[in-house]
């Protein structure tokens, strides 16, 4: 299976994942039906939208906002018990969602699309869209209400300085690698996961993008800065690498899995949860030095996890809202 076919939330749509085909046709199929018309199509309102691929989720006050396939945006007002689909102006896969406050938020996705909301995710407007470029955006980050950037395939980086109303491309020299995910450490440094073993560190102003060398040559799908200052980079075939010295040295964490690891969170009690393909959930009690797989009957890919106020962890992925894990389950 190729790297592009195992990367759930970046280069594939749900049916496309199951077929294990190449990436470009699936992206084209999302806007099928328009002929030569490159105008966006609104997402269809689907009664089972919560059961289709969800790529990312965030908490906005007490509200949960999730994004995924076919332009779906879902909102839960009751901590994940029920979900309602919100209308959006595009039907392409959305890959990431971030909020500046309880009102202003952004979602990125295929066709280099960026959507903006001013009402907590209930309505969305297109502020960036380039289907002709056939280049997806994989993640988005806002430093504050005015300044931010988004990253994607083939070193695509776009920046904004006017509250996300307009976006411009930022050249990155000869760099041509996919930039897959963005995460901010407690010291304010911004880490970016890339392909071919590359991890990048920058600041909010992007004054310098530093290429950090790692011992790994495969793709990193995500990065996770932890509260103790260490950083995890996760990728193909169960590869999780940890640095405790800002990237100067790296050690490989034991995971006991060969499934690709997609993302992770640090729980309130300090444990770390990573999730990935084949229903993988990994638990660490030593700040990411080692992980134990959690036994689960579900085998669908998991792309994201979110801990609620009561400690419960919600899972999201190929099957949409993919269940929950209790504190007791994670302890055993």
Explain this structure.
The protein is built from five helices and 27 strands. With 332 residues, it is mostly beta strands. The model is unreliable at 1-6 and 11-35 (pLDDT under 50). The strands form seven sheets. A four-stranded antiparallel sheet has the order 1-2-3-4. A four-stranded antiparallel sheet has the order 5-6-7-8, with no helix packed on it. A hairpin with a 5-residue loop joins strand 13 and strand 14.
How is the topology of this model organized?
Elements: H1 3-6, H2 8-11, H3 14-19, H4 23-29, E1 54-60, E2 63-68, E3 73-76, E4 84-86, E5 94-99, E6 105-109, E7 113-117, E8 125-128, E9 137-142, E10 148-152, E11 157-160, E12 168-169, E13 179-184, E14 190-194, E15 199-202, E16 210-212, E17 220-225, E18 231-235, E19 240-243, E20 251-252, E21 261-266, E22 272-276, E23 281-284, E24 292-293, E25 302-307, E26 313-317, E27 320-325, H5 327-331
Antiparallel strand pairs: 1-2, 2-3, 3-4, 5-6, 6-7, 7-8, 9-10, 10-11, 11-12, 13-14, 14-15, 15-16, 17-18, 18-19, 19-20, 21-22, 22-23, 23-24, 25-26, 26-27
Helix percentage range:
under 10%
Instruction: Please give the radius of gyration in angstroms.
Output: 18 Å
The fraction of residues assigned to DSSP E strands is 35-45%
Mean pLDDT metric: 89
Order of strands, widest sheet: 1-2-3-4
Taking the alpha carbons of the first and last residues, their distance comes to: 33 Å
Number of helices: 5
The 3D shape can be described as: globular
**Low-pLDDT residue spans:** 1-6, 11-35
Q: How many strands in all?
A: 27
What is the chains' assembly state? Answer: single chain
Q: Describe the biggest sheet?
A: 4 strands, antiparallel
* Structural class by SSE content: mainly beta
């Amino acid at each position: 299976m190729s790297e592009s076919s195992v990367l759930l939330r970046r280069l594939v749509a749900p049916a496309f994942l199951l077929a294990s085909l190449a990436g470009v046709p699936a992206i084209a199929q999302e806007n099928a039906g328009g002929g030569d018309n490159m105008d966006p199509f609104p997402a269809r309102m689907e009664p089972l939208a919560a059961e289709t691929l969800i790529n990312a989720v965030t908490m906005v006050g007490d509200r949960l906002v999730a994004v995924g396939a076919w332009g779906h945006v879902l909102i839960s007002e009751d901590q994940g018990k029920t979900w309602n689909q919100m209308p959006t102006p595009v039907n392409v896969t959305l890959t990431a969602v971030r909020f500046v406050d309880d009102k202003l938020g952004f979602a990125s996705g295929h066709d280099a699309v960026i959507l903006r909301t001013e009402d907590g995710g209930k309505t969305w407007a297109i502020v960036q869209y380039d289907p002709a470029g056939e280049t997806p955006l994989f993640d988005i980050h806002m430093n504050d209400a005015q300044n931010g950037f988004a990253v994607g395939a083939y070193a695509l980086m776009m920046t904004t300085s006017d509250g996300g109303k307009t976006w411009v491309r930022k050249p990155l020299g000869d760099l041509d690698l996919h930039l897959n995910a963005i995460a901010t450490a407690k010291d304010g440094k911004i880490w970016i996961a890339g392909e071919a073993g590359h991890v990048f560190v920058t600041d909010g102003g992007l004054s310098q993008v530093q290429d950090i060398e790692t011992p790994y040559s495969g793709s990193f799908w995500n990065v996770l800065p932890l509260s103790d200052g260490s950083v995890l980079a996760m990728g193909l075939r169960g590869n999780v690498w940890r640095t405790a010295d800002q990237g100067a040295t790296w050690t490989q964490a034991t995971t006991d899995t060969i499934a690709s690891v997609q993302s992770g969170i640090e729980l309130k009690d300090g444990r770390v949860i990573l999730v990935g393909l084949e229903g993988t959930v990994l638990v660490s009690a030593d700040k990411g030095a080692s992980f134990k797989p959690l036994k689960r009957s579900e085998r669908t890919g998991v792309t994201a996890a979110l801990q609620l106020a009561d400690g419960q962890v919600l899972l999201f992925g190929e099957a949409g809202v993919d269940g929950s894990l209790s504190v007791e389950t994670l302890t055993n």
